[in-house]
Amino acid sequence: MKLKVGLLGGGSWGTTVASLTAKNADVTIWARSEETVNEINEHHTNHKYLPGATLHKGLKASTSFEEVVGNADVLIMGVPSQHFRQVLLDAKPHIRPWIPIVSLAKGLELGTKMRMTQIIQEELPGHPAGVLTGPNLAKEIHSGKAAAAVIAMVDDVIAKELQDIFNSGVFRVYRNTDVIGCELGGALKNIMAIATGMGDGANAGDNTRAALITRGLSELTRLGTAMGGKRRTFAGLAGMGDLVATCSSSKSRNHHVGFQLGKGKSLDEIIEEMNEVAEGVKTAKAVMELSKEYDVPMPISEQVYNILYEGSSVYDAFKGLIQMESGSEAEPG
Ligand SMILES: NC(=O)C1=CN([C@@H]2O[C@H](COP(=O)(O)OP(=O)(O)OC[C@H]3O[C@@H](n4cnc5c(N)ncnc54)[C@H](O)[C@@H]3O)[C@@H](O)[C@H]2O)C=CC1
Ligand SMILES: O=C(CO)COP(=O)(O)O
């Protein structure tokens, strides 16, 4: 008997994971839009978020939480971080006791600065909560290119069962029990992708991008370990892996935001023109607060924040970083 999976969120990553998972499980996806639901059911496509892609024929879609979640053995949350809590609360009355809930989101909730698994634990205590993360640009995965991801759960036995649901041919899924580290790696790298995008947009060069990625890894490891993540996790798929993929790819939405800023566009203009989420824009605010709270210097994130919210120019940001004292590689800064 196949496991029943309910997945909430019909955007590019939610749809991709639903289609991949449909090879191994009986999957129903929830989307807000009736049009998207009909398109998935009738044509096996989602042209708004995955133009040109054909989805697994067994994947079903619905706008009803009852239909998607009511019988589910596993719930997957594929909505962006700032809507995660509300969608989870809307689905809550239909969720069966103690089923595992897996987040796909890579961001922190504004105001609370919470990770998505913390929100799951707060709203649905007792449900095992985990995250699927790693270097996984949706559009590449859809075109059948190989990728690796990591499922992070405190309970490794449940993680093994979930690994079997997500693993499919060229999509290889590893396990990790460090949920905090895996979740923070995915959220923090988006800010670094905005930084490298800015450099690329301003034609700063390959050496600058490499320096930002490397010092970015050091920065996110510092905050991540201060918050309880394991150092080793940040050298893995959820840390360095995702950082490299996102910071060097024009397919990344966060890199795109940075690139356009580097070309001189305003943030409002860029967001206006996008129909997809770039989580790093909002996560940057939460990270500045966490940097103060944990007393961890985050120089690259701070310059990104200054450009996004304080009116600094890309030139000011690079000047600010270059003028910093360059200490030992082992030290902050
Ligand atoms: N696209 C990618 O390559 C990857 C994305 N992710 C993460 O997955 C999460 C979801 O991202 P995507 O699917 O890429 O986003 P997307 O921008 O492609 O789609 C967003 C989805 O959220 C829905 N949505 C927006 N506001 C909502 C609300 N108020 N209530 C309910 N639904 C709402 C939209 O209708 C849409 O279905 C993000 O946290 C992202 O960082 C993770 C790995 C890869
Ligand atoms: O997380 C991602 C790849 O692993 C997707 O990155 P973007 O949200 O920047 O497109």
Summarize the structure.
NAD(+) binds at residues 9-14, 138, 253. By secondary structure, the protein is α/β, with parallel strands linked by helices.
Verbal overview:
NADPH binds at residues 12-13, 32, 49, 106, 138, 253, 277, 279. The chain has 333 residues and is of the alpha/beta class. It folds into 2 domains: 4-177, NAD(P)-binding Rossmann-like Domain (Rossmann fold, 3-Layer(aba) Sandwich); 191-323, N-(1-d-carboxylethyl)-l-norvaline Dehydrogenase, domain 2. It has 16 helices and 8 strands. The protein has helices spanning 12-21, 34-43, 65-69, 81-91, 116-123, 138-142, 156-166, 179-201, 206-226, 231-234, 237-247, 253-262, 267-273, 280-293, 299-309, 314-323, and strands spanning 4-8, 26-30, 60-62, 74-77, 101-103, 129-133, 147-153, 171-176. It has an 8-stranded mixed β-sheet, sandwiched between helices. α8 (179-201) runs antiparallel to α9 (206-226) and α8 runs parallel beside α11. The longest helix is centred in the middle third of the chain and has 23 residues, at 179-201. The model has no long low-confidence stretch (mean pLDDT 96). Residues 9-14, 31-32, 49, 78-81, 83, 87, 104-107, 136-138, 276-277, 279 line the site of 1,4-dihydronicotinamide adenine dinucleotide.
Number of E-type strands: 8
CATH architecture of the largest domain: 3-Layer(aba) Sandwich
Computed Rg: 19 Å
- Helix run count: 16
Shape: globular
Largest sheet: 8 strands, mixed
Q: What is the chain-wise order of helices and strands? A: EHEHEHEHEHEHEHEHHHHHHHHH
| Arithmetic mean of pLDDT | 96
Estimate the helix proportion, in percent: 40-55%
- The CATH class of the largest domain is Alpha Beta
Lateral strand order in the biggest sheet: 3-2-1-4-5-6-7-8
**Hetero ligands:** 1,4-dihydronicotinamide adenine dinucleotide, 1,3-dihydroxyacetonephosphate
The domain tally reads 2
Catalytic activity: sn-glycerol 3-phosphate + NAD(+) = dihydroxyacetone phosphate + NADH + H(+); sn-glycerol 3-phosphate + NADP(+) = dihydroxyacetone phosphate + NADPH + H(+)
EC number: 1.1.1.94
Active site: 189
Subcellular location: Cytoplasm
